[in-house]
Design goal:
This protein is an all-alpha fold and 57 residues long. Helix content is 88%, strand content 0%.
């Protein structure tokens, strides 16, 4: 059951992100679409680093 929920959440996230980046790409061009993706990547990396709080694996 848990893997089904995980797959569903991943699928919904993939759909939403594809639609958002597709709209940005079509409306504003590739620079904005890739910039948005890069911003989310770095924001996520900083968030993970903050949540880990200096702990290692």
């Amino acid at each position: 059951m848990a893997f089904g929920v995980l797959a569903t959440v991943n699928g919904i996230g993939d759909l939403i992100s594809s639609v958002v980046v597709g709209v940005l790409w079509t409306t504003f061009g590739t620079e904005v679409a890739f910039g948005y993706s890069a911003f989310l990547f770095f924001f996520g990396a900083v968030l993970v680093a903050q949540l880990r709080g200096g702990r290692t694996a």
